[in-house]
Amino acid sequence: MSGQNIAQSLGGKSILLVVGGGVAAYKSLDLVRRLRERGARVRVVMTKAAKEFVTPLAFTSLSNEKVHDDLFSATDEQAMGHIQLSRDADLIVVAPATAHLLARAAQGLCDDLAATLLLATDKRALYAPAMNLRMWLAPATRRNVALLKQDGALFVGPEDGAMACGEYGPGRMSEPLEIVAAIEAALKGETRRPLQGAAARGPLSGRHVVVTSGPTHEAIDPVRYIANRSSGKQGHAVAAAAAAAGGRVTLVSGPVTLADPAGCDVVRVESACEMFAAVERAMPADVFIGAAAVADWRVEAAADKIKKEGAGAPAFALVENPDILAAVSHAADRPRVVVGFAAETRDVIAHAKEKLIRKGCDLIVANDVSEGSGVFGGDANEAHFVSPAGVESWPRMSKEAVAAQLVARLADILNKSEAGE
Ligand code: CTP
To answer: Which domain CATH number covers 209?
Structure first.
Protein backbone atom coordinates (compact mmCIF):
# COMPACT_ATOMS: atom_id res chain seq x y z
CA MET A 1 0.00 0.00 0.00
CA SER A 2 1.27 3.48 -0.89
CA GLY A 3 1.15 6.57 1.27
CA GLN A 4 3.78 5.74 3.85
CA ASN A 5 4.30 9.44 4.62
CA ILE A 6 0.62 10.08 5.30
CA ALA A 7 -0.20 10.73 8.97
CA GLN A 8 -2.07 7.83 10.57
CA SER A 9 -4.93 10.12 11.51
CA LEU A 10 -7.35 7.17 11.53
CA GLY A 11 -5.04 4.63 13.17
CA GLY A 12 -7.02 2.07 15.15
CA LYS A 13 -10.35 3.29 13.75
CA SER A 14 -12.82 1.00 12.08
CA ILE A 15 -15.09 2.32 9.34
CA LEU A 16 -18.07 0.46 7.96
CA LEU A 17 -18.54 1.68 4.39
CA VAL A 18 -21.98 1.14 2.89
CA VAL A 19 -21.85 1.48 -0.88
CA GLY A 20 -25.11 2.34 -2.62
CA GLY A 21 -25.92 1.84 -6.29
CA GLY A 22 -24.80 4.95 -8.09
CA VAL A 23 -22.21 5.78 -10.70
CA ALA A 24 -20.19 7.53 -7.94
CA ALA A 25 -19.48 4.08 -6.45
CA TYR A 26 -16.19 4.11 -8.38
CA LYS A 27 -15.06 7.03 -6.18
CA SER A 28 -15.67 4.90 -3.10
CA LEU A 29 -12.89 2.59 -4.23
CA ASP A 30 -10.51 5.53 -3.90
CA LEU A 31 -12.13 6.39 -0.56
CA VAL A 32 -11.22 2.92 0.77
CA ARG A 33 -7.62 3.45 -0.34
CA ARG A 34 -7.45 6.90 1.33
CA LEU A 35 -8.91 5.58 4.57
CA ARG A 36 -6.54 2.65 4.72
CA GLU A 37 -3.56 4.93 4.01
CA ARG A 38 -4.53 6.78 7.17
CA GLY A 39 -4.57 3.61 9.24
CA ALA A 40 -8.30 2.82 9.28
CA ARG A 41 -9.77 -0.63 8.98
CA VAL A 42 -12.51 -0.54 6.34
CA ARG A 43 -15.27 -3.10 6.03
CA VAL A 44 -17.51 -2.77 3.00
CA VAL A 45 -21.18 -3.58 2.61
CA MET A 46 -22.66 -3.27 -0.88
CA THR A 47 -26.27 -3.03 -1.99
CA LYS A 48 -27.40 -5.16 -4.90
CA ALA A 49 -27.52 -2.06 -7.12
CA ALA A 50 -23.97 -1.07 -6.11
CA LYS A 51 -22.71 -4.30 -7.64
CA GLU A 52 -24.07 -3.14 -11.01
CA PHE A 53 -21.50 -0.34 -10.94
CA VAL A 54 -18.43 -1.81 -9.20
CA THR A 55 -17.50 -5.39 -8.40
CA PRO A 56 -17.19 -6.69 -4.83
CA LEU A 57 -13.77 -8.01 -5.84
CA ALA A 58 -12.49 -4.46 -6.35
CA PHE A 59 -13.54 -3.53 -2.79
CA THR A 60 -12.15 -6.80 -1.40
CA SER A 61 -8.78 -6.09 -3.02
CA LEU A 62 -8.60 -2.53 -1.70
CA SER A 63 -9.99 -3.15 1.77
CA ASN A 64 -8.27 -6.50 2.22
CA GLU A 65 -11.51 -7.72 3.82
CA LYS A 66 -14.45 -9.79 2.74
CA VAL A 67 -17.23 -7.66 1.25
CA HIS A 68 -20.63 -8.20 2.85
CA ASP A 69 -23.82 -8.05 0.82
CA ASP A 70 -26.17 -10.76 2.04
CA LEU A 71 -28.60 -10.30 4.92
CA PHE A 72 -29.34 -14.00 5.02
CA SER A 73 -25.83 -15.41 4.65
CA ALA A 74 -25.63 -18.41 6.98
CA THR A 75 -21.82 -18.40 6.95
CA ASP A 76 -21.54 -14.70 7.76
CA GLU A 77 -24.12 -14.97 10.51
CA GLN A 78 -22.17 -17.84 12.01
CA ALA A 79 -18.87 -15.98 11.91
CA MET A 80 -20.28 -12.64 13.05
CA GLY A 81 -23.88 -11.48 13.37
CA HIS A 82 -24.64 -8.68 10.94
CA ILE A 83 -25.46 -6.40 13.82
CA GLN A 84 -21.94 -6.91 15.12
CA LEU A 85 -20.64 -5.42 11.85
CA SER A 86 -22.05 -2.03 12.73
CA ARG A 87 -21.38 -2.40 16.46
CA ASP A 88 -17.67 -2.95 15.82
CA ALA A 89 -17.39 0.15 13.67
CA ASP A 90 -16.44 3.57 15.02
CA LEU A 91 -18.44 5.23 12.26
CA ILE A 92 -20.68 4.18 9.40
CA VAL A 93 -20.10 5.95 6.11
CA VAL A 94 -22.66 5.70 3.33
CA ALA A 95 -21.03 6.58 0.00
CA PRO A 96 -22.61 6.96 -2.43
CA ALA A 97 -25.86 7.54 -0.56
CA THR A 98 -28.50 7.23 -3.27
CA ALA A 99 -31.97 8.75 -3.03
CA HIS A 100 -33.36 5.24 -2.53
CA LEU A 101 -30.91 4.37 0.27
CA LEU A 102 -31.60 7.69 2.03
CA ALA A 103 -35.34 7.00 1.78
CA ARG A 104 -34.97 3.50 3.20
CA ALA A 105 -32.75 4.72 6.05
CA ALA A 106 -35.10 7.60 6.88
CA GLN A 107 -38.08 5.24 7.02
CA GLY A 108 -36.26 2.51 8.95
CA LEU A 109 -36.79 -0.13 6.29
CA CYS A 110 -34.54 -3.15 6.46
CA ASP A 111 -34.96 -5.07 3.26
CA ASP A 112 -31.27 -5.76 2.69
CA LEU A 113 -28.05 -5.92 4.69
CA ALA A 114 -27.11 -2.25 4.12
CA ALA A 115 -30.46 -0.89 5.31
CA THR A 116 -30.61 -3.36 8.22
CA LEU A 117 -27.20 -2.25 9.46
CA LEU A 118 -28.23 1.39 9.28
CA LEU A 119 -31.26 0.64 11.41
CA ALA A 120 -29.62 -1.76 13.86
CA THR A 121 -26.60 0.34 14.72
CA ASP A 122 -25.89 2.43 17.79
CA LYS A 123 -23.29 4.42 15.83
CA ARG A 124 -23.67 7.58 13.82
CA ALA A 125 -23.82 7.43 10.06
CA LEU A 126 -22.17 9.92 7.72
CA TYR A 127 -23.93 10.14 4.36
CA ALA A 128 -22.25 11.28 1.15
CA PRO A 129 -25.24 11.71 -1.19
CA ALA A 130 -24.90 11.25 -4.93
CA MET A 131 -27.82 11.56 -7.29
CA ASN A 132 -29.37 13.56 -10.07
CA LEU A 133 -30.02 17.15 -8.99
CA ARG A 134 -33.79 16.88 -9.44
CA MET A 135 -33.83 13.83 -7.21
CA TRP A 136 -31.74 15.72 -4.62
CA LEU A 137 -34.07 18.72 -4.75
CA ALA A 138 -37.26 16.65 -4.77
CA PRO A 139 -39.50 17.26 -1.73
CA ALA A 140 -39.35 13.58 -0.76
CA THR A 141 -35.53 13.62 -0.59
CA ARG A 142 -35.59 16.94 1.30
CA ARG A 143 -37.93 15.34 3.86
CA ASN A 144 -35.80 12.20 4.15
CA VAL A 145 -32.59 14.19 4.66
CA ALA A 146 -34.30 16.35 7.29
CA LEU A 147 -35.52 13.23 9.10
CA LEU A 148 -32.08 11.63 9.07
CA LYS A 149 -30.46 14.85 10.36
CA GLN A 150 -33.06 15.02 13.10
CA ASP A 151 -32.05 11.47 14.07
CA GLY A 152 -28.40 12.54 14.36
CA ALA A 153 -27.05 11.58 10.92
CA LEU A 154 -24.17 13.57 9.45
CA PHE A 155 -23.82 14.67 5.84
CA VAL A 156 -20.96 15.60 3.53
CA GLY A 157 -21.95 17.12 0.20
CA PRO A 158 -23.35 16.77 -2.34
CA GLU A 159 -21.38 19.24 -4.44
CA ASP A 160 -22.50 21.30 -7.38
CA GLY A 161 -21.17 19.98 -10.63
CA ALA A 162 -21.77 18.35 -13.95
CA MET A 163 -23.80 15.17 -13.55
CA ALA A 164 -23.21 11.94 -15.37
CA CYS A 165 -26.60 12.58 -16.97
CA GLY A 166 -25.44 15.88 -18.51
CA GLU A 167 -27.24 18.28 -16.14
CA TYR A 168 -25.48 20.74 -13.79
CA GLY A 169 -26.31 21.41 -10.12
CA PRO A 170 -26.16 19.88 -6.64
CA GLY A 171 -25.98 16.09 -6.53
CA ARG A 172 -22.36 15.16 -7.18
CA MET A 173 -20.74 13.05 -4.48
CA SER A 174 -17.98 14.82 -2.54
CA GLU A 175 -14.43 13.89 -3.49
CA PRO A 176 -12.83 11.10 -1.41
CA LEU A 177 -10.49 13.47 0.44
CA GLU A 178 -13.41 15.68 1.44
CA ILE A 179 -15.21 12.61 2.76
CA VAL A 180 -12.05 11.64 4.65
CA ALA A 181 -11.95 15.11 6.26
CA ALA A 182 -15.63 14.76 7.24
CA ILE A 183 -14.89 11.31 8.74
CA GLU A 184 -11.98 12.70 10.75
CA ALA A 185 -14.17 15.53 12.03
CA ALA A 186 -17.02 13.12 12.86
CA LEU A 187 -14.68 10.87 14.84
CA LYS A 188 -13.60 13.81 16.99
CA GLY A 189 -17.20 14.30 18.12
CA GLU A 190 -19.83 11.99 19.57
CA THR A 191 -19.89 8.89 17.38
CA ARG A 192 -22.86 7.20 18.99
CA ARG A 193 -26.26 7.83 17.53
CA PRO A 194 -28.05 10.27 19.83
CA LEU A 195 -30.56 8.48 22.00
CA GLN A 196 -34.20 9.08 21.31
CA GLY A 197 -37.30 8.66 23.37
CA ALA A 198 -37.16 7.18 26.85
CA ALA A 199 -33.38 6.70 26.95
CA ALA A 200 -32.74 10.33 25.91
CA ARG A 201 -34.84 11.51 28.81
CA GLY A 202 -33.59 8.74 31.08
CA PRO A 203 -32.45 9.41 34.63
CA LEU A 204 -28.77 9.18 33.67
CA SER A 205 -28.98 11.16 30.42
CA GLY A 206 -26.08 13.58 30.11
CA ARG A 207 -23.98 11.55 32.60
CA HIS A 208 -20.80 9.65 31.84
CA VAL A 209 -20.66 6.32 33.64
CA VAL A 210 -17.50 4.18 33.70
CA VAL A 211 -17.97 0.53 34.66
CA THR A 212 -15.35 -2.19 35.12
CA SER A 213 -16.47 -5.79 34.71
CA GLY A 214 -15.23 -9.35 34.51
CA PRO A 215 -12.03 -10.92 35.78
CA THR A 216 -8.49 -9.92 34.93
CA HIS A 217 -5.92 -12.32 33.56
CA GLU A 218 -2.41 -11.95 34.90
CA ALA A 219 0.19 -13.53 32.66
CA ILE A 220 2.71 -15.96 34.10
CA ASP A 221 4.38 -16.52 30.76
CA PRO A 222 3.13 -16.27 27.15
CA VAL A 223 0.82 -19.29 27.57
CA ARG A 224 -0.29 -19.29 31.22
CA TYR A 225 -2.16 -16.84 33.40
CA ILE A 226 -3.76 -16.41 36.82
CA ALA A 227 -7.52 -15.76 36.66
CA ASN A 228 -10.63 -15.84 38.84
CA ARG A 229 -14.19 -17.09 38.47
CA SER A 230 -15.90 -13.79 37.69
CA SER A 231 -18.24 -14.12 34.69
CA GLY A 232 -18.80 -10.38 34.22
CA LYS A 233 -22.58 -10.90 34.28
CA GLN A 234 -23.21 -8.41 37.09
CA GLY A 235 -20.87 -5.73 35.72
CA HIS A 236 -22.24 -6.07 32.19
CA ALA A 237 -25.80 -5.88 33.53
CA VAL A 238 -24.89 -2.65 35.37
CA ALA A 239 -23.41 -1.16 32.17
CA ALA A 240 -26.52 -2.15 30.19
CA ALA A 241 -28.83 -0.66 32.82
CA ALA A 242 -26.86 2.60 32.91
CA ALA A 243 -27.03 2.85 29.09
CA ALA A 244 -30.75 2.06 29.11
CA ALA A 245 -31.15 4.90 31.62
CA GLY A 246 -29.65 7.26 29.06
CA GLY A 247 -26.07 7.37 30.42
CA ARG A 248 -23.02 7.52 28.19
CA VAL A 249 -21.34 4.33 29.32
CA THR A 250 -17.74 3.24 28.98
CA LEU A 251 -17.45 -0.41 29.93
CA VAL A 252 -13.91 -1.59 30.63
CA SER A 253 -14.13 -5.34 30.51
CA GLY A 254 -11.71 -8.10 31.36
CA PRO A 255 -11.88 -11.36 29.34
CA VAL A 256 -15.50 -12.56 29.33
CA THR A 257 -17.65 -14.65 27.01
CA LEU A 258 -20.60 -12.24 27.13
CA ALA A 259 -21.90 -10.12 24.27
CA ASP A 260 -21.26 -6.38 24.48
CA PRO A 261 -24.20 -4.65 26.17
CA ALA A 262 -26.18 -2.40 23.84
CA GLY A 263 -25.29 1.25 23.72
CA CYS A 264 -21.99 1.03 25.61
CA ASP A 265 -18.50 1.90 24.44
CA VAL A 266 -16.60 -1.25 25.31
CA VAL A 267 -12.86 -1.31 25.99
CA ARG A 268 -11.48 -4.84 26.25
CA VAL A 269 -8.48 -5.47 28.48
CA GLU A 270 -6.68 -8.48 29.94
CA SER A 271 -4.73 -7.50 33.02
CA ALA A 272 -5.32 -5.26 36.04
CA CYS A 273 -2.68 -2.80 34.80
CA GLU A 274 -4.41 -2.57 31.41
CA MET A 275 -7.76 -2.10 33.15
CA PHE A 276 -6.32 0.71 35.28
CA ALA A 277 -4.88 2.46 32.21
CA ALA A 278 -8.19 2.13 30.33
CA VAL A 279 -10.13 3.55 33.29
CA GLU A 280 -7.75 6.50 33.54
CA ARG A 281 -8.19 7.16 29.80
CA ALA A 282 -11.98 7.01 30.16
CA MET A 283 -12.07 9.68 32.86
CA PRO A 284 -13.57 12.16 33.67
CA ALA A 285 -16.88 10.58 34.63
CA ASP A 286 -19.88 11.37 36.79
CA VAL A 287 -20.07 7.84 38.13
CA PHE A 288 -17.51 5.04 38.50
CA ILE A 289 -18.67 1.52 39.23
CA GLY A 290 -15.94 -1.03 39.97
CA ALA A 291 -17.70 -4.35 39.37
CA ALA A 292 -14.62 -6.17 38.06
CA ALA A 293 -12.93 -8.88 40.07
CA VAL A 294 -9.51 -7.32 39.69
CA ALA A 295 -6.62 -9.64 40.51
CA ASP A 296 -4.84 -8.39 43.61
CA TRP A 297 -1.46 -9.57 42.42
CA ARG A 298 0.42 -10.10 39.23
CA VAL A 299 3.49 -12.11 38.41
CA GLU A 300 6.55 -10.61 36.77
CA ALA A 301 5.71 -12.48 33.56
CA ALA A 302 8.44 -14.48 31.86
CA ALA A 303 9.16 -13.56 28.25
CA ASP A 304 9.29 -17.22 27.22
CA LYS A 305 7.27 -20.24 28.22
CA ILE A 306 8.55 -21.58 31.53
CA LYS A 307 9.88 -25.13 31.03
CA LYS A 308 9.99 -27.99 33.51
CA GLU A 309 13.64 -27.95 34.43
CA GLY A 310 14.92 -30.28 37.09
CA ALA A 311 12.61 -31.50 39.81
CA GLY A 312 11.41 -28.36 41.59
CA ALA A 313 8.30 -26.36 40.71
CA PRO A 314 9.02 -22.72 39.84
CA ALA A 315 8.48 -20.11 42.55
CA PHE A 316 6.66 -16.91 41.55
CA ALA A 317 7.23 -13.57 43.17
CA LEU A 318 3.88 -11.75 43.27
CA VAL A 319 3.65 -7.99 42.86
CA GLU A 320 0.60 -6.07 44.12
CA ASN A 321 -1.65 -4.62 41.42
CA PRO A 322 -2.89 -1.03 41.53
CA ASP A 323 -6.20 -0.70 43.38
CA ILE A 324 -8.33 0.88 40.65
CA LEU A 325 -11.31 1.66 42.87
CA ALA A 326 -9.17 3.35 45.55
CA ALA A 327 -7.24 5.30 42.92
CA VAL A 328 -10.44 6.59 41.28
CA SER A 329 -11.89 7.48 44.70
CA HIS A 330 -8.84 9.52 45.61
CA ALA A 331 -8.18 11.11 42.21
CA ALA A 332 -8.22 14.86 41.74
CA ASP A 333 -11.02 14.50 39.18
CA ARG A 334 -13.00 12.08 41.34
CA PRO A 335 -16.38 11.13 39.88
CA ARG A 336 -19.34 12.43 41.85
CA VAL A 337 -20.31 8.88 42.85
CA VAL A 338 -17.88 5.97 43.24
CA VAL A 339 -19.29 2.48 43.74
CA GLY A 340 -17.38 -0.67 44.64
CA PHE A 341 -18.42 -4.30 44.75
CA ALA A 342 -17.29 -6.68 47.45
CA ALA A 343 -17.36 -10.38 46.80
CA GLU A 344 -16.90 -12.13 50.13
CA THR A 345 -17.09 -15.66 51.42
CA ARG A 346 -17.76 -14.74 55.08
CA ASP A 347 -18.52 -11.71 57.29
CA VAL A 348 -19.90 -10.06 54.17
CA ILE A 349 -21.17 -6.85 55.72
CA ALA A 350 -18.25 -6.30 58.09
CA HIS A 351 -15.80 -6.62 55.20
CA ALA A 352 -17.91 -4.35 53.00
CA LYS A 353 -17.98 -1.62 55.67
CA GLU A 354 -14.23 -1.85 56.05
CA LYS A 355 -13.74 -1.63 52.25
CA LEU A 356 -16.03 1.39 52.01
CA ILE A 357 -13.68 3.29 54.30
CA ARG A 358 -10.40 1.82 53.06
CA LYS A 359 -11.21 2.52 49.40
CA GLY A 360 -12.88 5.89 49.98
CA CYS A 361 -15.96 5.10 47.92
CA ASP A 362 -19.57 6.17 48.43
CA LEU A 363 -21.26 2.79 48.17
CA ILE A 364 -20.38 -0.86 48.24
CA VAL A 365 -22.59 -3.53 46.75
CA ALA A 366 -21.63 -6.59 48.77
CA ASN A 367 -22.49 -10.19 48.14
CA ASP A 368 -21.73 -13.66 49.36
CA VAL A 369 -19.82 -15.67 46.78
CA SER A 370 -19.12 -18.66 48.99
CA GLU A 371 -19.54 -22.05 47.39
CA GLY A 372 -23.21 -22.91 47.24
CA SER A 373 -24.38 -19.29 46.95
CA GLY A 374 -24.43 -19.72 43.15
CA VAL A 375 -23.49 -16.08 42.70
CA PHE A 376 -20.20 -16.50 40.80
CA GLY A 377 -21.21 -17.31 37.22
CA GLY A 378 -24.89 -17.59 38.20
CA ASP A 379 -27.77 -15.37 37.10
CA ALA A 380 -29.00 -14.22 40.51
CA ASN A 381 -27.49 -12.16 43.28
CA GLU A 382 -28.28 -11.43 46.90
CA ALA A 383 -26.83 -8.02 47.47
CA HIS A 384 -26.30 -5.70 50.41
CA PHE A 385 -26.13 -2.03 49.69
CA VAL A 386 -23.59 -0.56 52.12
CA SER A 387 -23.16 3.21 52.48
CA PRO A 388 -22.11 5.50 55.33
CA ALA A 389 -25.86 5.86 56.02
CA GLY A 390 -26.26 2.17 56.77
CA VAL A 391 -26.86 -1.24 55.28
CA GLU A 392 -29.80 -2.28 53.14
CA SER A 393 -30.15 -5.95 52.28
CA TRP A 394 -31.94 -6.70 49.05
CA PRO A 395 -33.81 -9.97 48.49
CA ARG A 396 -32.43 -12.50 46.04
CA MET A 397 -33.05 -11.20 42.51
CA SER A 398 -31.62 -11.42 39.01
CA LYS A 399 -28.36 -9.61 38.28
CA GLU A 400 -30.33 -7.39 35.85
CA ALA A 401 -32.69 -6.41 38.67
CA VAL A 402 -29.75 -5.62 40.99
CA ALA A 403 -28.30 -3.48 38.18
CA ALA A 404 -31.58 -1.62 37.64
CA GLN A 405 -31.94 -0.93 41.39
CA LEU A 406 -28.38 0.31 41.61
CA VAL A 407 -28.81 2.62 38.60
CA ALA A 408 -32.02 4.06 40.07
CA ARG A 409 -30.13 4.76 43.32
CA LEU A 410 -27.27 6.43 41.48
CA ALA A 411 -29.63 8.71 39.55
CA ASP A 412 -31.25 9.64 42.85
CA ILE A 413 -27.92 10.41 44.52
CA LEU A 414 -26.78 12.54 41.56
CA ASN A 415 -30.03 14.51 41.51
CA LYS A 416 -29.94 15.08 45.27
CA SER A 417 -26.31 16.18 45.22
CA GLU A 418 -27.16 18.65 42.45
CA ALA A 419 -30.10 19.97 44.41
CA GLY A 420 -27.68 20.49 47.33
CA GLU A 421 -29.45 18.01 49.60
N1 CTP B 1 -10.76 -3.41 43.06
C2 CTP B 1 -10.06 -2.61 42.21
N3 CTP B 1 -8.74 -2.84 42.01
C4 CTP B 1 -8.10 -3.83 42.65
C5 CTP B 1 -8.82 -4.68 43.53
C6 CTP B 1 -10.16 -4.43 43.70
O7 CTP B 1 -10.64 -1.71 41.63
N8 CTP B 1 -6.82 -4.04 42.43
C9 CTP B 1 -12.19 -3.12 43.29
C10 CTP B 1 -13.15 -4.16 42.77
O11 CTP B 1 -13.55 -3.87 41.43
C12 CTP B 1 -14.31 -4.03 43.72
C13 CTP B 1 -13.65 -3.62 45.02
O14 CTP B 1 -12.39 -3.09 44.67
O15 CTP B 1 -15.18 -3.00 43.38
C16 CTP B 1 -13.48 -4.71 46.02
O17 CTP B 1 -12.78 -5.77 45.44
P18 CTP B 1 -12.30 -6.98 46.35
O19 CTP B 1 -11.51 -7.91 45.51
O20 CTP B 1 -13.46 -7.49 47.10
O21 CTP B 1 -11.37 -6.18 47.36
P22 CTP B 1 -9.86 -6.27 47.70
O23 CTP B 1 -9.32 -4.89 47.78
O24 CTP B 1 -9.20 -7.16 46.74
O25 CTP B 1 -9.89 -6.86 49.16
P26 CTP B 1 -9.67 -8.34 49.70
O27 CTP B 1 -8.85 -9.07 48.67
O28 CTP B 1 -8.95 -8.14 50.97
O29 CTP B 1 -11.04 -8.92 49.90
So the answer is: 3.40.50.10300
Same domain, 89 and 214: no
Establish whether residue 341 lines the binding site of ligand 1, counting it when its CB lies within 6 angstroms of any ligand atom.
yes
Our answer on whether the CB atom of 272 is closer than 6 Å to any ligand 1 atom is yes
For residue 158, cis peptide bond before it (omega within 30 degrees of 0) = yes
Q: Are residues 221 and 128 in the same domain?
A: no
pTM (two decimals): 0.63
- What does the radius of gyration of the chain's CA atoms come to, in whole angstroms? 25
Asked, for residue 194, whether it belongs to a domain, the answer is: no
Which residues are annotated as catalytic? 165
Co-location of 96 and 139 in the same domain: yes
112 Cβ inside 6 Å of ligand 1: no
Q: Is residue 246 part of a domain?
A: yes
- Nearest ligand 1 atom, CA 296: 8
192 falls within a domain: no
Q: How many domains does the chain have?
A: 2
Final residue of a structural domain among 128, 156, 187: 187
Q: Is the CB of 347 under 6 A from ligand 1?
A: no
The protein residue with its alpha carbon nearest to ligand 1, atom 24, reads: 296
Distance of CA 265 from the midpoint of ligand 1 (Å): 23
> Does 352 sit in the ligand 1 pocket, CB within 6 Å?
no
Question: For the purposes of burial, counting CB atoms within 10 Å of the CB of 359, is it exposed (0-12), middle (13-18) or buried (19 or more)?
Answer: buried
Contact present, 178 and 121 (Cβ < 8 Å): no
Q: What is the pLDDT along the chain (421 residues), one digit of tens a residue?
A: 445 578 899 998 999 999 999 999 999 999 999 999 999 999 999 999 999 999 999 999 999 999 988 776 655 555 556 677 777 899 999 999 999 999 999 999 988 899 999 998 888 899 999 999 899 999 999 999 999 998 889 999 998 887 777 778 888 999 999 999 999 999 987 666 666 665 667 899 889 999 999 999 999 999 999 999 899 999 999 999 999 898 999 999 999 999 888 888 889 999 999 999 999 999 999 999 999 999 999 998 888 888 887 768 888 889 999 999 999 999 999 999 999 999 888 899 999 999 999 999 999 999 887 766 666 667 778 899 999 999 999 988 999 999 999 999 999 999 888 777 6
- Ligand 1 centroid to residue 340 C-alpha, Å: 8
Please tell me what DSSP assigns to residue 343.
Answer: E
Domain of 169, in residue numbers: 3-187
Of 131, 152, 187, the domain-final residue = 187
If asked whether residues 29 and 167 sit together in one domain, one would say: yes
Q: Which residues have a Cβ under 8 Å from the Cβ of 398 and sit 6 or more positions away? A: 379, 380, 381
Measured from the CB, is residue 339 less than 6 Å from ligand 1?
no
212 and 279 inside one domain: yes
Q: Ligand 1 test: best mutation among 323, 346, 365, most atoms within 8 Å of CB? A: 323
DSSP-assigned states of every residue in 215-261: B--EEEETTEEE-----SHHHHHHHHHHHHTT-EEEEEE-S-SSPPP
Ligand 1 mutation pick, 289, 294, 344, max ligand atoms within 8 A of CB:
294
